[in-house]
Amino acid sequence: MTPRPRGALNARPATGRPGRVPRYTPAVRYVLRAAALAAALGAWQLLTSLRVDAWLRFSQFPTVVDVARAFGARLGSGAYWQDLTDSLTRIVTGFLLAAVLGVLAGTAVARSRLAEDLLGPVLEVVRPVPAIALVPVAILLFPSNEQGIVFITCAAAFFPVLVSTRHAVRALHPVWEEGVRTMGGGRRRILRSVVLPGALPGIFGGLSVGIGVSWICVISAEMISGQYGIGYRTWQDYTVVDYPGVFVGMVTIGVLGWLTSTAVELVGRRVTAWLPRRTLDARGGPAPGRTPRGATAADRATGAPADASSETTADRTSTTDDPGAGPHPDRGTGTIAPPAPAATKPHEPQGTQEAQLSQQSRQPQEPREPQAQEVSHDHLV
Questions:
Q1: Alpha-carbon span 95 to 139, nearest angstrom
Q2: Region 63-271: CATH code
Q3: pLDDT for 145-189, tens place per residue?
């Protein structure tokens, strides 16, 4: 039987297509993203310039050229940068407060029954209330509109972070905590070494959701009760029927939201660098990674990982200590050595067997005691 080559079990099946599957390089991805954005802008310009009125009405929409002109005019004014600074200050302040409070409250609720009994009912009752509905409450509670907008922004991002942290902490395996306790670690060591690092992926998932919700609520709060900010300026443009200015505000909000979400994601990737990353090829399948060190030629050809317990090249080509002896039966030849035969008892001559039988027959046998027979009394009944 011909032995199977190393790595054949993990080899990928042939797809029938010649050539190697191309991988997505960063340059190709950027080109695709730019092409998608250019296609969307081109469709916008085409529909608005032709004033298409079908089921959707594009005749009242400003064209891309009109929005670009208005955007260039806004960039040269100081009011635009003032609004931009105010909105960013509010979003950063409220989001940071929500991140700290959400992580602390989520960890406490997940780790302590007392905290769950005290905070759980109140949080679950307040959580379904939209953050924008808290505008009247913020006006009554805080003396200035600035503090009220920060409060609404914090409330919007607080609950996504809270829920994500709570589920992430509860999903941790108890074996990790027991291992730290076995080595003498206390509660602080468990929180620092097990709970927080293990819950980081879930926490940053909640932060990514919270930053988007924060932008929605801060713009809405600025439209209702703000005096400065992107939301306030966008609403003012709408009241004076300046539709290019409205789209300038919308584009600004979208770009700022994308930048802040990307920043949160990059920080999360940096903090959770120990997580395995999966890359995809052009067909959507897993891209082939680097072959581990110590892999054979068959492993490199098939892409199979090297076996940690496999023997090295020196082991396969080494011989025994005796120079005159041949190669080891399990090494060098590539064949499997047959199992060693079982040890058999040497054959005894026939005369010896007959002598043993005659000796056993001459030995006196002990008399056997008579066994009492059971008498049936059924006939007496």
A1: 20
A2: 1.10.3720.10
A3: 889 999 999 999 999 999 999 999 999 888 888 888 888 888 888
